[in-house]
Write a structure and sequence with these properties.
The protein is of the alpha/beta class. It has 19 helices and 33 strands. It folds into six domains: about 110 residues, 3-Layer(aba) Sandwich (GIY-YIG endonuclease), CATH 3.40.1440.60; about 70 residues; about 190 residues, P-loop containing nucleotide triphosphate hydrolases (Rossmann fold, 3-Layer(aba) Sandwich), CATH 3.40.50; about 180 residues, P-loop containing nucleotide triphosphate hydrolases (Rossmann fold, 3-Layer(aba) Sandwich), CATH 3.40.50.300; about 55 residues, no CATH class; about 90 residues, 2-Layer Sandwich (Alpha-Beta Plaits). The chain binds adenosine-5'-diphosphate (ADP) and zinc ion (2 copies).
Length: about 725
């Protein structure tokens, strides 16, 4: 029998596949593409994925090693997923082994045998006697328990992961169990099939004609690739369109993949899906442990999950009967991974839809310029939802000129007045400040010495509660010096204002109101965010202070005043995308105001109210602003009219990365231009000096070819051993 060789993707930072031999003892049954095998690589044993099961051996045969074992478990990858991941590696010029590594749940990257306990679900107990009295009591006395019971009762079985993500606690679950209202059962892992009671008809809304046209366009394109952009303000009924588009797909016993920026932050969205469909839903987000992630992976792969809802990396979930992909908030920058494998989830999802010949739906109130341009040029089907569904009105945005105002603690007189009136009406106020900590710097009031992180050359942020100086760039911490190290003065004071300070100032200004701060610092503890959000919904707090975190998808019906305290940073950034992101943020924030029947107001404080970008956005809206900006990008030959790659390099000395990148610019690359090398906006971070080189082309083909040529040059670059470098295709953040 001839020797059998296979090609394997291994988690190492090298771009090639590796050849191994299959010893006779392991050759039956035949090895398949997508199988996981253990192989030795240098001194290590690693998991590899079989990419080619019938490879030629191009090496000296005596040097080729045998595979060690085959992992005969349920967790092999399908041929289709393997091809997809190869496409991803190819698109981003990223080491293929690392792509597989990152796409797999952590437990599948390990050699140890995995034992998953059978999936458990909660069900309503069939009552032996009438329990309507008990339920009536529950409804009055314990509303949350009652709501939990109703969700469980509406389903044939719902997992703890789902319930937890919806914001329910173990205690509430235990309480219902001890009342014998619910029981826990093993889930039968059969393929999901559509049934009579799968759809909750009562919950279904009658579509507006705008909505109905979109649903029918999507349904007409099932079983072929098409990309739909739904462009509609917050509250215009996009989610309802997603839900009704899914019906036909689910009824065909196909699966739906739904991607959202942050599920933990938006339990309301998940709740809508849970309410509407009584089907097994698998979740994929950062609040899951390794076993739970693997369980999601498995239920998707086996087809027992009908819907997978997840964040960015859910795009790599195996779904062998996938019929539709939905990406909510397609403009959101969290869809792009910003380290190692720098993929954009939306773009990879489109690639996957194309591969599988299925439709994909992108939804947003503020389309990314990339998607908008693709829609305008006819590459995508473009659907606009111009009116808010339901009763609510659109919030008005007004600018406040800070030069004309008495300002106290960063709050203008106008804003304070509006806050008082809103609070007096019993409604809530959201203040938005994108700077956590107490103050962005501390300095000496005598000699103006500034406490700076030595490793980044940037000011330390003061965290008053922890009594620490923390560098927000590298994370290093330091105690607050009692004296100025430069002149010895004790007059050291905070400079500027962060959310922590704003919170304590508001306590002075509004002693009657309860204030809650929601940022990365205040929500570090597990479950804390869900708890705070619930408290806001329950109106335990009247004033909300938050960072960008709060701009995403929350639904606070009683927040009728939203203020952005400081918008100026984005107006003068060197990054051409900063204004796009600023505009998206303002519109998203505005979407938080007055979603219910109460009208909302949005105030934006600026020292530059005459700035044309702000004026255009406020008076003419996002779309006018976006069209204007697209025209400018076209003239300036910037994306989305051209294509970019960013080569980043850093080292302990500034000359190394500069020379490394400069050497690469010596050879002309056809159809491409170089910009740089230039020092990164943050030139020094954690002790390293950082440089950027942008490669730009008018066609993606040219860019792709150029990158291949650069990658061939790099091993011969005399500086390459002295620098760390990384490649970012379609970069969206030039600040890094
Ligand atoms: P989006 O996803 O665009 O923010 P939603 O789908 O969440 O919008 O809709 C916003 C609100 O309007 C929700 O309360 C929803 O129930 C309601 N709504 C959506 N579509 C309709 C409709 N066709 N008829 C009545 N109400 C609707
Ligand atoms: Zn001093
Ligand atoms: Zn630092």
């Amino acid at each position: 029998m001839p020797e059998q060789y296979i090609q394997v993707a291994i988690p190492v930072p090298m771009r090639q596949l590796f050849t191994y031999r299959v010893p006779e003892a392991l050759s039956s049954p035949a090895i398949k593409v997508g199988e996981r095998v253990a192989v030795s690589f240098g001194p290590r044993k690693v998991i590899g994925i079989v990419i080619d099961a019938q490879a030629q051996c191009d090496f000296e045969i005596s040097k080729v090693k045998d595979i060690t074992t085959r992992l005969n478990d349920n967790f092999n990858l399908s041929q289709s997923l393997v091809s997809f991941l190869q496409l991803c590696a190819h698109y981003y010029h990223h080491p293929v082994g690392d792509v597989f590594q990152q796409a797999l749940p952590i437990l599948l990257r390990k050699i140890e045998n995995i034992t998953l306990s059978p999936p458990m679900v909660w069900q309503a107990q069939c009552p032996s006697e009438d329990n309507s009295d008990l339920l009536a009591k529950l409804e009055k006395k314990a509303a949350k328990q009652f709501a939990l019971y109703q969700i469980i009762n509406n389903h044939n079985g719902i997992s703890w992961v789902e319930l937890r993500t919806l914001g329910y606690s173990k205690a509430q679950l235990n309480a219902l169990q001890s009342k014998a209202l619910i029981i826990e059962k093993e889930q039968v892992a059969s393929q999901y099939t559509w049934q009579e009671n799968t759809l909750n008809q009562a919950d279904r809304l009658v579509l507006s004609s705008e909505q109905a046209i979109i649903v029918s366009a999507i349904n007409h394109s099932l079983a072929q690739f098409s990309c739909h952009l739904i462009d509609g303000v917050t509250g215009s009924g996009k989610t309802e369109v997603y839900l009704q588009s899914m019906e036909e797909v689910l009824a065909n016993n196909q699966q739906v993949l739904v991607i959202v920026p942050e599920i933990g932050l938006t339990p309301q969205t998940l709740n809508r899906f849970e309410q509407r469909f009584n089907v097994p839903i698998a979740l994929h987000h950062s609040g899951l442990n390794d076993k739970e992630r693997l369980a999601t992976w498995l239920s998707a792969q086996q087809g027992s999950a009908a819907i997978v809802i997840g964040t960015r990396s859910a795009v790599f979930t195996p779904l062998h009967r996938l019929g539709l992909i939905i990406i909510d908030e397609e403009h959101d920058s969290s869809l792009k991974q910003q380290d190692s494998f720098r993929y954009h989830c939306r773009d990879m999802a489109i690639l996957r839809a194309r591969q599988l010949n299925i439709p994909i739906v992108l939804g947003t109130a503020t389309p990314s310029f990339e998607s908008l341009q693709n829609a305008l040029s006819g590459k995508y089907s473009y659907h606009q939802l111009l009116n808010r569904a339901g009763k609510s009105n659109k919030a008005k945005i007004a600018l406040i000129d800070m030069n004309q105002q008495q300002v106290e603690f960063g709050l203008s007189g106008t804003l304070k007045h509006e806050m008082k009136q809103t609070l007096a009406r019993g409604e809530q106020v959201l203040l938005f400040l994108n700077r956590r900590g107490y103050a962005p710097a501390i300095n000496c009031q005598e000699c103006h010495w500034l406490a700076e992180c030595q490793r980044c050359d940037k000011p330390y942020t003061l965290h008053q509660k922890q009594q620490l100086l923390i560098c927000h760039h590298c994370g290093s911490q330091k105690r607050i010096p009692p004296q100025c190290p430069s002149c010895g003065s004790v007059r050291i004071a905070p400079l500027g204002q962060g959310t922590e300070q704003l919170e304590s100032r508001l306590e002075e200004l509004f002693p009657e109101s309860s204030i809650v701060r929601i940022d990365r610092d205040s929500t570090r503890k597990k479950g804390e965010l869900a708890k705070l959000l619930q408290e806001v919904t329950d109106k335990k707090h009247q004033l909300l202070v938050g960072t960008q975190m709060l701009a995403k998808g929350h639904h606070f019906p009683d927040v009728t005043l939203v203020a952005v305290l400081d918008v100026d940073g984005a107006l003068f950034s060197f990054d051409f995308r900063a204004s796009e992101q600023m505009a998206q943020l303002l519109i998203q924030v505005a979407g938080r105001a007055g979603r219910a029947s109460k009208p909302g107001k949005v105030l934006v404080q600026s020292n530059f109210v005459d700035h044309p970008l702000l004026q255009d956005l406020v008076h003419n809206g996002y779309h006018h602003f976006a069209h204007q900006a697209l025209t400018e990008r076209k003239q300036a030959l910037l994306p989305p009219f051209t294509f970019q790659a960013l080569l980043r390099a850093d080292a302990n000395y500034p000359s190394y990365p500069e020379k490394f990148l400069r050497a690469l610019t010596q050879r002309r690359l056809e159809g491409c231009e170089f910009a740089g090398p230039v020092p990164a906006a943050m030139e020094k971070k954690a002790g390293k000096f950082r440089y950027h080189l942008i490669i730009q082309a008018k066609s993606r083909k040219d860019l792709h070819r150029a990158i291949l040529q650069l990658l061939i040059q790099i091993p011969n670059n005399e500086w390459q051993g002295k620098v760390r470098w990384s490649l970012d295709i379609d970069p969206i953040d030039l600040n890094w």
